[in-house]
Amino acid sequence: MAFPIPPWLNQYRASANSFLSQYEPLILLITPLFSLLIARILQSIFLVIHERGLKATIISFVMSAIKLVPGVKKYIDSEKQKIVDKLQGSSNRDGWRTELPKSGLGDNALVQMRDEKQKDVTWQGKCSGTVYIGGNENEGHFSLINETCSMFAHTNPLHLSVFPSVVRFEAEVVAMTAAILGSKEKVSGGQICGNMTSGGTESILLAVKSSRDYMKAKKGITKPEMIIPVSAHSAYDKAAQYFKIKLWRVPVNKEFRADVKAIKRYINKNTIMIVGSAPGFPHGIIDPIEELGDLASSYQICFHVDLCLGGFVLPFARKLGYPVPPFDFTVQGVTSISVDVHKYGLAPKGTSVVLYRNREIRKHQFVAVTEWTGGLYVSPTIAGSRAGGLIAGAWAAMISLGSEGYLENTKEVMEASKRIQKGIQDIPELFVIGRPDMSIIAFGSDVVDIFEVNDILSSKGWHLNALQRPNSVHICVTLQHVPVVQIFLKDLRDSVQTVKENPGPVNGGFAPIYGAAGKMPDRVMVQDLLVEFMDSSC
Question: Mapped to the 3 state alphabet, what secondary structure does 363-426 carry?
């Protein structure tokens, strides 16, 4: 049955046809398509501005336009290469092997390796972080780790039935680590679980991946976003790139701690997780974990705590009477924790632990493959095969030291840290950034160029970490530094005085590069510079 057309609709159609009849049919066809294209371009521009900010977007656009000028891009590339060459320093690959020797060297390979090792810098007591075990690398705890790794060098926990010893070691390392981080407390829920990984970055990657997939299953989030303080580790940037997660960096407060109110403003329907550190790598300051936990709980999102540095210090520092705020699974809202055993746990390099509040979250970490012709496959971490020797080394480190050993080590490290902090504060030209909660002390200056000071320290054999925003340097205190506190402070005072009396770049120093990178408005150019450096270094 035909329905009658209302008179007003006929009038509207006639009016529309009369109006459009004055235009070419092709124009009528192209116009809506062109409008859609313009709308899409505007949407993309607004998204870029929203993500990067108006200032950064304008700078990027201007720099891209400038590079189109003939000769400019070539000049910029030339200058970048000069900086890359500078960053590489004295690295010379002449004589490096590019193919197998025709005849094997046999045991002489060890002789050549010992010769090469002699070319490494003297790191004992001179490096920020880096080596956490105290003493000489051929005795004491070093010897224990070396022998353990050698004993289990050919084992692989992927083969559960072949190497049950290593499987047990991993389970016990995870359980012991969880215990010092609150798993035995009733408030933790009694379901803390986890796995060993190759380091803090992998632990963070797995925690982010598990949180993403858990929140997708729980809340149906398909466009995940993650919120981190600017002080959070760069591993979160890596995770965001790997797992296609939108990353929001939020400024810290005046005390250099995560700003809870600022983080709250970024939470939306796509937020899967927020992040806190205990302490943060740059300044050794603990974020307000309890407040962040409350925030995560109220929005029913995941909350990861980075304890890669603090996991084997803070629990024992608290027992020693240091004022340590809550930071572990006793805090409601914490869903995962990463903690490195190869730092203050004094295990061999390449050992970390990622922990979860319960198995429901951890299941999203695993990868199970059912359609492979090679058989059924399941793996708990990013790596398939894993070095059993490292797992065994972590177990040996923890068992050999015990709680009393970690208490004693923490006492020595914390006391050395306080002496260094006091010594820095006594140098008029320097100031300590924030109020360090642990064993990382960052310092800057309004009087001298702190990067020039760092260059002078480097000439004296020290290897500290250069920081930015604000320009500063930090030292991560380990057992290696306990006997050399006064030597470090003297060298620091002398370096400050040298720069004060003779300001200006040090020949062969990196101060000009760090200074320029910090002031360079086009951060994409800085990023390109880093990629070029890495590409030429690998």
Answer: HHHCEEECCCCCCCEEECCCCCCCCHHHHHHHHHHHHHHHHHHHHHHHHHHHHHHHHHHHHHHC
Token output for 320? 């020693």
C-alpha 375/C-alpha 367 separation (Å) is 14
Tell me the torsion sign for CA atoms 130, 135, 138, 139: negative
Is the backbone peptide bond immediately before 470 cis, with ω within 30 degrees of 0?
yes
Closest CA to 458 of 397, 511, 536: 511
What b/e readout covers 138-152, taking b as 16+ CB neighbours within 10 angstroms?
eeebbebbeebbeeb
Cα 408 to Cα 405: distance, rounded to the nearest angstrom? 5
As given in the structure block, the two tokens for residue 460 are 């004296």
Residue 383, phi-psi category: left (phi > 0), alpha (psi -120 to 50), beta (remainder):
beta
Q: Cα–Cα distance between 514 and 90 in angstroms, integer?
A: 18
Q: Max alpha carbon distance in the chain (Å)?
A: 100
State the pLDDT at residue 76. Answer: 67
Cα dist. 408→182, 344, 393, 436, 449 in Å?
21, 12, 20, 20, 37
Q: For tokens 């530094």, what's the residue? A: 481
- Of 280, 197, 193, 186, the closest CA to residue 233 belongs to 280
Q: Count other Cβ atoms within 10 Å, centred on residue 169.
A: 26
pTM over 0.70: yes
Residues 437 and 449 sit within 8 Å (Cβ to Cβ): no
* Distance, CA of 364 to CA of 380 (rounded, Å): 10
Tokens read off for 267: 């939470």
Per-residue pLDDT of the chain (538 residues; tens, 9 = 90+): 556 667 777 777 778 777 767 777 777 678 888 888 888 888 777 777 766 667 667 766 776 776 677 776 776 677 667 766 766 665 677 888 889 999 999 999 999 999 999 989 888 999 999 999 999 988 999 999 999 999 999 999 999 999 999 999 999 999 999 999 999 999 999 999 999 999 999 999 999 999 999 999 999 999 999 999 999 999 999 999 999 999 999 999 999 999 999 999 999 999 999 999 999 999 999 999 999 999 999 999 999 999 999 999 999 999 999 999 999 999 999 999 999 999 999 999 999 999 999 999 999 999 999 999 999 999 999 999 999 999 999 999 999 999 999 999 999 999 999 999 999 999 999 999 999 999 999 999 999 999 999 999 999 999 999 999 899 999 999 999 999 999 999 999 999 999 999 988 777 667 666 666 666 666 777 777 777 777 777 7
Locate tokens 């059912």: which residue?
370
Which residues, in sequence order, are bridge partners of residue 441? 475
Residue 522, classed as helix, strand or coil, is coil
Interatomic CA distance for residues 374 and 62, integer angstroms? 53
